[in-house]
Structure prediction request, 232 residues.
Amino acid sequence: MTTHESAIAEFIRVLEDHRIQCQKEGKYDEARIALQRLEDLKLHDEQRQKEALQKRQLEERLGAEEAHMLELQQLNLKWDKKMADYADHAHKLVQKMKDRHILELEEYQHQLLSKAQKLKFSPELLKLREVQERLAKGKDYVSAQETKERADKLEAAETETWLQKKQEWISRQETNWKNTKQQELAALKKRIQSHQEKQRKQRNVELERLVQRFQNVKTELDKQHNLERLRS
Prediction:
């Protein structure tokens, strides 16, 4: 009880004693005046107590809401940072894998070149070259030139065919290799996406818990306030 409340209670007690004394002494006009002042004073004090109760209850509700908003802000700040940090980490993981794939592709291309089938001429071409040399040794240059032209033409065709098949083989190997690396990158992105989804779900769970806890606090506070109003 505050000093002001104590003073009012003391004044009411003194006034009540005065009323009783006046009643005993037959001073009914004074007793009536004292009674009226008592009723006015009690009514005023009840109104003051009611306003004080309303003010305190309002402050308690506002305090609970402010505490909830602060908790909500802290929760969002925590998760914003946590999710941003992971997004940055995930970006670095993806970029690191892409950079590694570029280096690995260069190395793999070198391996493919060393593994590619070497140029091997046909028996027909080898036979023409033998004939060409024999004719040249026999000083039959006209026939040697004709044979050489036939052999050169065949060699060019076989070389072009070999280069084309070599490039097709390398292209197929690179495509298969790139598909494997794309699958590896896709798997990484899927793991990242899965982790981010777990983060979002966990954030929602914590948010729902926080909101539910606030609702429970409000419910209990409302019950308490209702009882206080009933008792006042």
User: Anything to note?
Assistant: Residues 3-231 form one domain. The mean pLDDT is 90.
